[in-house]
């Protein structure tokens, strides 16, 4: 059964890569070698299988609560609201201190994104940039995307479809005295998720300093409760 599922995934990925390569050749005149294409397909298939295994593990975990960061660290949660039909995604980011108080937040309107994996990677990248722009020196970047967090905490070279974004995030780590990346279940990422959904209502990015919308504030207050 598992072999059949892997075979179907391999067929779908191969068709997707062939279509992508044809579009690249038609629009940009660039070609993709068989070796490069096969390496990408196998790497992405491995990525999907890893995410599936981690997702199963996460479902049995009950530890999905949002926790306060320690000391002077600022915890920054990020999330997306991906629309597969329009291939677009809105982003939500919220920064809180060790007392659970909102330091800043932002919500970005939908922009064109190929798939949910890339959407999550971009949201994480924007969370890091958001932290740097605000001058935070010690930060904990947290999201509910197992794949993105796994790639950022891995010592191996990333070869996934979103590897350029992951590499850019790694470069930005030099902007901080301390930066860590951690995974939290969806229930522990509710405030960022609501901000991402809120972004769908705007035509331009929205930023808040030491405040958020009423809906998000209720979630923040609930997170702060013992």
Automatic annotation (TrEMBL):
Gene3D superfamilies: Ribonuclease H-like superfamily/Ribonuclease H (3.30.420.10). Residues 77-198 form the RNase H type-1 domain. Pfam families: RVT_3. It comes from the Eukaryota. This is RNase H type-1 domain-containing protein. It comes from Hibiscus sabdariffa.
